[in-house]
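C-alpha coordinates for chain A. Residues wanted.
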Protein backbone atom coordinates (compact mmCIF):
# COMPACT_ATOMS: atom_id res chain seq x y z
CA UNK A 1 0.00 0.00 0.00
CA UNK A 2 1.43 3.37 -0.91
CA UNK A 3 0.99 6.83 0.59
CA UNK A 4 -1.88 7.75 -1.73
CA UNK A 5 -4.04 4.83 -0.61
CA UNK A 6 -4.86 6.83 2.51
CA UNK A 7 -6.97 9.10 0.31
CA UNK A 8 -9.39 6.25 -0.34
CA UNK A 9 -10.32 5.76 3.32
CA UNK A 10 -13.25 7.33 5.11
CA UNK A 11 -12.56 10.80 6.50
CA UNK A 12 -11.80 11.12 10.23
CA UNK A 13 -14.95 11.04 12.31
CA UNK A 14 -17.22 9.64 9.61
CA UNK A 15 -20.37 8.33 11.22
CA UNK A 16 -21.40 4.95 9.74
CA UNK A 17 -24.14 4.02 12.22
CA UNK A 18 -26.03 6.18 14.71
CA UNK A 19 -23.85 6.54 17.80
CA UNK A 20 -20.84 4.79 16.19
CA UNK A 21 -17.95 6.85 14.89
CA UNK A 22 -15.27 5.23 12.75
CA UNK A 23 -11.89 6.93 13.01
CA UNK A 24 -9.69 6.36 10.01
CA UNK A 25 -6.15 5.45 11.05
CA UNK A 26 -3.07 6.55 9.20
CA UNK A 27 -1.43 3.18 9.84
CA UNK A 28 -1.93 -0.56 9.84
CA UNK A 29 -0.36 -3.24 12.01
CA UNK A 30 0.08 -6.84 10.90
CA UNK A 31 2.50 -9.77 11.18
CA UNK A 32 4.60 -11.19 8.38
CA UNK A 33 7.54 -13.60 8.73
CA UNK A 34 7.59 -13.19 12.55
CA UNK A 35 7.89 -9.42 12.09
CA UNK A 36 5.26 -7.01 13.34
CA UNK A 37 4.87 -4.40 10.58
CA UNK A 38 3.60 -0.95 11.40
CA UNK A 39 2.96 0.83 8.10
CA UNK A 40 1.89 4.43 7.78
CA UNK A 41 -0.25 5.13 4.71
CA UNK A 42 0.16 8.89 4.97
CA UNK A 43 2.56 11.15 6.83
CA UNK A 44 1.94 10.67 10.56
CA UNK A 45 1.90 13.39 13.16
CA UNK A 46 3.12 13.05 16.74
CA UNK A 47 -0.26 11.79 17.99
CA UNK A 48 -0.47 9.17 15.20
CA UNK A 49 2.97 7.81 16.11
CA UNK A 50 2.11 7.85 19.81
CA UNK A 51 -1.12 5.93 19.15
CA UNK A 52 0.73 3.38 17.01
CA UNK A 53 3.41 2.82 19.69
CA UNK A 54 0.80 2.24 22.40
CA UNK A 55 -1.33 0.00 20.16
CA UNK A 56 1.65 -2.06 19.05
CA UNK A 57 2.89 -2.51 22.62
CA UNK A 58 -0.56 -3.65 23.79
CA UNK A 59 -1.60 -5.80 20.83
CA UNK A 60 1.54 -7.00 19.05
CA UNK A 61 4.47 -6.77 21.44
CA UNK A 62 6.73 -9.29 19.70
CA UNK A 63 10.46 -8.71 19.52
CA UNK A 64 10.86 -7.94 15.78
CA UNK A 65 9.24 -4.72 14.55
CA UNK A 66 9.36 -2.88 11.22
CA UNK A 67 8.14 0.74 11.26
CA UNK A 68 7.47 2.01 7.74
CA UNK A 69 7.51 5.81 7.48
CA UNK A 70 7.94 5.86 3.70
CA UNK A 71 5.31 8.62 3.57
CA UNK A 72 7.63 10.80 5.63
CA UNK A 73 7.78 12.26 9.11
CA UNK A 74 8.24 15.83 10.26
CA UNK A 75 8.67 16.14 14.02
CA UNK A 76 10.56 18.43 16.37
CA UNK A 77 13.52 17.22 18.43
CA UNK A 78 11.31 17.40 21.54
CA UNK A 79 8.61 15.25 19.91
CA UNK A 80 11.21 12.67 18.85
CA UNK A 81 12.57 12.55 22.39
CA UNK A 82 9.05 12.09 23.83
CA UNK A 83 8.32 9.24 21.40
CA UNK A 84 11.64 7.60 22.27
CA UNK A 85 10.80 7.69 25.98
CA UNK A 86 7.30 6.38 25.28
CA UNK A 87 8.79 3.47 23.33
CA UNK A 88 11.10 2.61 26.22
CA UNK A 89 8.21 2.78 28.69
CA UNK A 90 5.72 0.86 26.53
CA UNK A 91 7.63 -2.28 25.58
CA UNK A 92 8.97 -5.03 27.82
CA UNK A 93 12.60 -4.04 28.10
CA UNK A 94 13.59 -7.30 29.79
CA UNK A 95 13.42 -9.10 26.42
CA UNK A 96 15.89 -8.38 23.63
CA UNK A 97 14.15 -6.89 20.59
CA UNK A 98 15.04 -5.46 17.20
CA UNK A 99 13.35 -2.49 15.59
CA UNK A 100 13.92 -1.42 11.99
CA UNK A 101 12.67 1.93 10.73
CA UNK A 102 12.11 2.14 6.98
CA UNK A 103 12.71 5.77 5.95
CA UNK A 104 13.81 6.20 2.33
CA UNK A 105 13.64 10.01 2.08
CA UNK A 106 16.52 12.13 3.37
CA UNK A 107 14.38 14.07 5.88
CA UNK A 108 12.65 10.97 7.28
CA UNK A 109 15.97 9.11 7.44
CA UNK A 110 17.64 11.94 9.36
CA UNK A 111 14.74 12.31 11.79
CA UNK A 112 14.61 8.53 12.30
CA UNK A 113 18.33 8.54 13.12
CA UNK A 114 17.65 11.23 15.74
CA UNK A 115 14.85 9.06 17.14
CA UNK A 116 17.33 6.15 17.23
CA UNK A 117 19.46 8.11 19.71
CA UNK A 118 16.47 8.87 21.96
CA UNK A 119 15.20 5.30 21.79
CA UNK A 120 18.52 3.68 22.73
CA UNK A 121 18.37 1.28 25.65
CA UNK A 122 20.19 -1.88 26.59
CA UNK A 123 17.69 -4.45 25.29
CA UNK A 124 16.44 -2.93 22.03
CA UNK A 125 18.51 -2.65 18.87
CA UNK A 126 17.14 0.01 16.55
CA UNK A 127 18.44 0.74 13.06
CA UNK A 128 17.23 2.94 10.26
CA UNK A 129 17.09 1.70 6.66
CA UNK A 130 16.30 3.17 3.26
CA UNK A 131 15.37 -0.21 1.70
CA UNK A 132 12.84 -2.70 3.04
CA UNK A 133 14.75 -5.79 1.96
CA UNK A 134 17.81 -4.73 3.98
CA UNK A 135 15.61 -3.96 7.01
CA UNK A 136 13.92 -7.40 6.85
CA UNK A 137 17.24 -9.19 6.43
CA UNK A 138 18.65 -7.44 9.47
CA UNK A 139 15.56 -8.14 11.59
CA UNK A 140 15.65 -11.86 10.75
CA UNK A 141 19.43 -12.20 11.19
CA UNK A 142 20.96 -13.65 14.34
CA UNK A 143 23.20 -10.69 15.11
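Reply:
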Amino acid sequence: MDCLSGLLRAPHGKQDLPGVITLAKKYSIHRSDDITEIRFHEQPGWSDLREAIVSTAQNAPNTLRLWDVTCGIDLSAEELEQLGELGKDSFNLSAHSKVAVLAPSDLAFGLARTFEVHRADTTTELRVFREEQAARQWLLSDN
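The helical segments are 46-59, 77-90, 106-119, 132-140. The first strand starts at residue 14 and ends at 17.
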